[in-house]
Amino acid sequence: MPEPISPRDRLIVALDMASTDEAERLIARIGDAASFYKIGYRLGYAGGLALAERLVRDGHKVFLDLKLHDIGNTVEEGVQSLAGIGATFLTVHAYPQTMRAAAAGRDKAGTGLKILGVTVLTSYDDADAREAGYASSVADLVAARAAAAGAIGIDGIVCSAAEAPQVRAILGPDRLIVTPGIRPAGAEIGDQKRVVTPAEAMRAGVDHVVVGRPITGAADPRDVARRIVDEMAAAL
């Protein structure tokens, strides 16, 4: 069985902002209410990888949400390069060839970096999947990609908490489920379409939740982060 995860480490704060200065100011305001931060495209391409190294040195955990997807050799070598940052998680798109290459890069790097496969973005619904050319529903796509991830041996899956029970049944207890699209009760859903609350995510068997705007846009981000952690702790 995997190691128990503390409620505070279950919260991943999304640093979806334009500059590292802005991100560092937010991190200082959150203080000890959170310990795990996500860096995606916007910040990653604006000095975010160097910020990730600083965060790791300061004892924080980092989730590099870069969604790698390319020919196998490029993905494998990219994972090996990124592993040197010391991040905890790195995302790739959950296509079998990409996941196999990422797993090979992870194993060669040997740093403990965990690879997460992104099944279907939480901004997609069935209509979006049809528009993209998929005949399957979102739920069926998620299930197929989760099964492939389990067979290939990557460390976990990124999916909506709405699909988490189905994914958990496919993956079993030993792999991670990370869910974006988390909104505390009463928060605006923004551009997300498949959203749940932190408590609902815990009850669905999720390991980590990713929360962005409800924290980063709050007048008191530390207080919001603490309330989310408390909500998850009560639901566990």
Any idea how many domains? Answer: 1
The end-to-end distance, rounded to whole angstroms, is 17 Å
Name the CATH class. Answer: Alpha Beta
Biggest pleated sheet: 8 strands, parallel, barrel
The helical percent reads 40-55%
- Poorly predicted regions are none
Number of DSSP helical runs: 11
Give an overview of the whole structure.
With 236 residues, the chain is α/β, with parallel strands linked by helices. The chain has one domain (7-235): Alpha-Beta Barrel (TIM Barrel). Helices cover 47% and strands 16% of the residues. It has an 8-stranded parallel β-barrel, surrounded by 6 helices. Strand 6, helix 8 (164-171) and strand 7 (176-179) form a beta-alpha-beta unit. The mean pLDDT is 92. It catalyses: orotidine 5'-phosphate + H(+) = UMP + CO2. Pfam families: OMPdecase (PF00215). Residues 10-228 form the Orotidine 5'-phosphate decarboxylase domain. It comes from Methylobacterium aquaticum.
